[in-house]
Amino acid sequence: MALTFVQTRFGALEGVSLSETVSVFRGVPYAKAPVGELRFRRPVPCEPWEGVKKADRFSAVCLQGRMPKGSFYHKEFYSEDDDLFQSEDCLYLNIWTPAKAENEKLPVLFWIHGGGFDHGWGFEKEFDGEAFAEKGVILVTINYRCNIFGFLKHPWLDAENEEHISGNYGIFDQIAALQWVRDNISFFGGDPENITIDGQSAGGMSVQTLISTDLTRGMIAGAILQSGGGFGGLRLGGGAKEAEETGVAFVRSTGAKDLFELRAMPAEKLFSYYVAFKEGRFAPHVDGYLLKAEYTEIAKSGAMHDIPYMIGTCVDEGKSFGNGFLTGTLNFVNNQLELGRTPAYFYCFDRKLPGDDSGSFHSSELWYQFKTLSRCWRPMTKEDYALSEIINSYWANFAKAKNPNGEGLPNWEPYTKEEKNRQLLKLQVETEQFEE
């Protein structure tokens, strides 16, 4: 039987058995609740607890807006989650493991959700770790602070710390979760030296941030960037001046006279001001500490982490998002070659999903990656399930050995100067020579 009882550095956890070989630990705290005086501060490690903490249910998610009912993405991913509990107390993670004992040195895949840094959570219905665990990979998914709770910058907040920075709390949450995993994953059978980070959309942009900061150097063994990240195609984050102007305008809209009033304001009221605010966006920015420069400069200078990478896009997302994802991805894979580093594995998800004419839209690969097709409303075919098995295996193999290839899978060669390989993830998986 897989582990269901674990003694972490903070206390004992009791998880849930999903099968003879897989268990899950849901709603595991990795930091103190960022409420009261901890609102708009970097995360603080959680306190040890007495007794055994039940890890049998998912936590609350960060306060956020919901997709309009009847909209495309509401129908696709969120239609069953309209009553999801939201709270500032949201810094929790979830762990699926096949381990039967501690210290089995299993590879770890650390998943960062998307949502435009505005919304999302680590247990959306398209995410699940059981298929990865069945392949010998521990999956960790996390919640982090979004929107104003995760990215508000303001001079009042700058004055509180020696670095004189604020904002980027959502990324610091991710780093805190990553550190928690490094410190504790061995108790769940994982290898803290073999953690692969993976994210899609804003999650991919988060991965780009984590591989661009010195604060995570040596913590990450490999990285996967899905329809986000890369550089030069998307403006992932602005500078401190722009972030501060947006933050000052937002705080002015709340009527708060000082930081005490801002922190004392009920979270729901504060969020209502965010909903009404239309003067800018809240996302990672260059603060001189977490990020010392824009992503392009960091990547081209060679300061980005020198680790194995897998990166790609969906073929039809350009209809809604332009060519930014593809441009950023191409810049990324070519930069690896220009620096003389390990070539990246480059993919394109090219299955036009059944049920409508939306094609291979932004986020469509997620059903396949996590093998959760049965949760989708679409009339999936046996060929879709076969493609899902291939994709899930590629991701699991990359987590294990930083190479997606494995027995019985279509061969996937990296993108090199001589062979500009791009793996087409479609019903008949094949390799193409990509022409820019």
Topology record:
Blueprint: E1 5-7, E2 12-14, E3 16-17, E4 23-29, E5 52-54, H1 72-78, E6 92-97, E7 106-112, H2 130-134, E8 138-142, H3 147-151, H4 155-158, H5 169-184, E9 190-200, H6 202-210, E10 222-226, E11 238-239, H7 240-254, H8 259-264, H9 267-276, E12 285-286, H10 295-301, E13 309-314, H11 318-321, H12 324-338, E14 345-349, H13 366-369, H14 382-401, E15 421-425, E16 430-433
Parallel strand pairs: 2-5, 7-8, 7-9, 9-10, 10-13, 11-12, 13-14, 14-15
Antiparallel strand pairs: 1-2, 3-4, 4-6, 6-8, 15-16
Question: What descriptors fit this protein?
Answer:
single chain; 436 residues; alpha/beta; Rossmann fold; eleven-stranded mixed sheet; three-stranded mixed sheet; 14 helices; 16 strands; 17% strand
Determine and state the CATH class.
Alpha Beta
CATH level-two architecture: 3-Layer(aba) Sandwich
Unreliable stretches (pLDDT < 50, length at least 5) are none
CATH superfamily: Alpha/Beta hydrolase fold, catalytic domain
Tally of discrete structural domains: 1
Report strand %: 15-25%
- Estimate the helix proportion, in percent: 25-40%
Say how many strands there are.
16
